[in-house]
Amino acid sequence: MNNQRRSDRAHCTASAPPTLGELSTLPHHDRAAPVDGVDAEILLALTAHPRATTIAIAEAVGISRNTAHARIASLEERGVLGSFERRVDPAATGCPLTAFITTRVVQRLLDEVAAHLAEIPEVLQVHGLSGAADLLVHVVAADADDLYRIAGMVLAIPGVERTDTALVMRELVGYRIAPLLERRRAPGPR
Q1: d(C-alpha 103, C-alpha 130), whole Å
Q2: Model pLDDT for residues 89-99, shown as the tens digit of each residue
Q3: pTM exceeds cut of 0.85
Q4: In sequence order, which ranges of the chain are alpha helices (DSSP H)?
Q5: Same domain for 124 and 55
Q6: Is residue 169 helix, strand or coil?
Q7: What is the CATH number of the domain that holds 131?
Q8: DSSP state of 138
Q9: Total domains present in the chain
Q10: Is there a single domain that holds both residue 42 and residue 99?
Q11: 73 lies in which domain range?
Q12: Same structural domain, 77 and 94
């Protein structure tokens, strides 16, 4: 069985890299154009005051209301502005524990594994990785027993070969984007 797994992995990873045409089918947030200085200013204003009106954003950035409105709409259309979900603390849903499950999968079953992971409510996000592990699965749980249940669900997915679970003991640097936006900020008055 172990030889079969190695064979599956070797066969699937030997495929050619995606073509430019295939890359163009990636979700829009994977290929969003970089923001310019004015967009960065708008995003910084929204980061500081997420509920601000378009007029307040326009005044903070020093642009007209119509320009602010058009640019915010463009940021949304391009996938630069993500969903509101990221702002909701999972602890408020009864899931105060956070963990990351590194997962090794049979490559030819990657899409099926991802579909199964998407059906588990406690799975917040899944990243494809290079290296020994194939996926990094971000999960939340109510307690240690619940985390054990969730990790078992992940391991039971057809195509999952191995998992390792790491419990987050403490968040040292929270999610942030402002430092990157600061670097793109527009210089001087508009």
Answers
A1: 12
A2: 999 999 999 99
A3: no
A4: 2-13, 20-23, 37-48, 54-61, 65-77, 110-118, 144-155, 178-184
A5: no
A6: coil
A7: 3.30.70.920
A8: E
A9: 2
A10: no
A11: 32-82
A12: no
